[in-house]
Specification:
The structure holds two protein chains of two kinds. Chain A is of the alpha/beta class. Chain A has five helices and five strands, in the order βαβααβαβαβ. Chain A has a five-stranded parallel sheet. Chain A is globular, with a radius of gyration of 15 Å. Chain A starts with a strand and ends with a strand. Chain B has two helices and four strands, in the order E-H-E-H-E-E. Classes of the chains: A alpha/beta, B alpha+beta. Chains A and B meet through helix 1 of A and helix 1 and helix 2 of B.
């Protein structure tokens, strides 16, 4: 079975969307999908309300992006990751980064399956496709 | 044979391929699935999906209001 392993390092909404699209598409293609959320990526995976965060240079395009997404019926990155999970995708939080930001498992969104370390990522991504987003 | 219609009109990528994958879960060998979509990527993406999953694209047809892809299920 083919595999896609995504490291979601970035904490901006655009990058989370890219990860969501590829996770959902790969899951629909029958791949085993794993998303490892690390560092700034974790900011989107706390229990706090999800906010749109864009890179500084594109911040003024936020409203246009939201309008375009609504017009094209693009789902949110969170909905896309839920769809991927419906096909068996797993989403893990990096234990070290969580520690750095003082986040415990119970602080994280329930979409996170578990907290894992780098060895788990390396073992799970072996012989598959890997993306760093 | 009667095709099972999957209506994904209006859904953006990767919606149509996801709807197809969900219908595929409930299909059996020999079934014909017919995907209706408006996302322009669907022509290439259904071909990629079929290649990956071992199924067959029978026909791709562009109607004025939708793209229709007929898929034969050869592998479950």
């Amino acid at each position: 079975m083919s595999k896609l392993s995504i490291i979601l390092f970035s904490g901006t909404t655009d990058k989370a969307l890219a990860a969501g699209v590829l996770a959902q598409a790969a899951a629909a293609m029958g791949s085993e999908v794993t998303i490892f959320v690390t560092f700034w990526g974790l900011m989107n995976f706390t229990k706090a309300e999800k906010k749109m965060v864009l890179p500084k240079e594109f911040e003024q395009m936020g409203p246009a992006m939201m309008q375009g997404m609504a017009k094209e019926h693009v789902k949110s990155w969170y909905e896309m990751m839920l769809e991927a999970k419906e096909f068996g995708a797993k989403i893990y939080a990096c234990s070290m980064s969580a520690g750095v930001f003082g986040l415990k498992k119970e602080d994280l969104d329930p979409i996170i399956d578990d907290m894992v370390g780098a060895a788990t990522y390396l073992q799970q991504s072996e012989d598959g496709q890997a993306l760093f987003i | 044979m009667e095709a099972k219609i999957i209506d994904s009109r209006g859904a953006a990528c990767p919606g149509p391929i996801t709807d197809l994958a969900k219908a595929y879960r409930n299909s059996k060998v020999g079934d014909i699935l017919e995907l209706w979509a408006t996302d322009k990527g669907v022509r290439a993406d259904t071909q990629a999906w079929a290649t990956k999953t071992g199924n067959e694209i029978l026909e791709v047809k562009e109607d004025p209001d939708k793209i229709v892809v007929r898929i034969k299920i050869n592998k479950r």
